[in-house]
Protein: Exodeoxyribonuclease III
Organism: Rhizobium rosettiformans
Amino acid sequence: MKIATYNINGINGRLDILLRWLEEAAPDVVCLQELKTSNDKFPRKAIEKAGFGAVWAGQKSWNGVAILARDADPIETRRAIPGGLTDDQSRYIEAAVSGVLVGCLYLPNGNPAPGPKFDYKLEWFKRLDRHAQALLDLDIPVALIGDFNVMPSDLDVYNPERWGDDALFRPEVRSAYAAMLKQGWTDAVREIYPDLPVYTFWKYWRNAFERDAGLRIDHILLSPPLAAGLQTAGIDRWVRALPKTSDHAPVWIEVS
């Protein structure tokens, strides 16, 4: 099974790019973030024509997440992280696909830090941490996938010294991510590439992509039953090189 995550940064504006990637990369399960569209304007027909079933939680102009499955209809199990009764931001959706429980997330950016947005990020992370533990307790194949807006270590950022005060790299955020791994999750990309600087995001300005001045903020975390079958992983950098593309590249793994 090939499982992928892709922050599309506007699904309707970049639908042609998404469809091209789906055809060429042939993933079985895809988690999308930053749909930036309301539920009624999600391009369901085009995605179904491409051979994918889908569930999604949209939000006009902002946020939004979706799970796609090749030749299958994902069975939705949840569309919000527990505990956020007043949280109306569309940042999480969960579904069962071919024996795997998939949680697709778009964790808050949190900038500027410190401040209310950073407080929201830490609170959201706490809720995710509790839910992640509950998923592990099920002892089934689970994948938590998406844009975590976290660079876990110096290896995940092109110039660590410049990012010390950023909400994606502050100690509180890295500690929260590390705490999730200690629960028993496997960071699939780092498992395959333990010592290499691999990036998933490059800003649009200052030729960041051409200079490979990137960040690794898109992650695929696997529960032990799923991590046992991890075969390989990769980043489809060619998608980031296309005209009018997202500032993220698709990240994928293969599991048996």
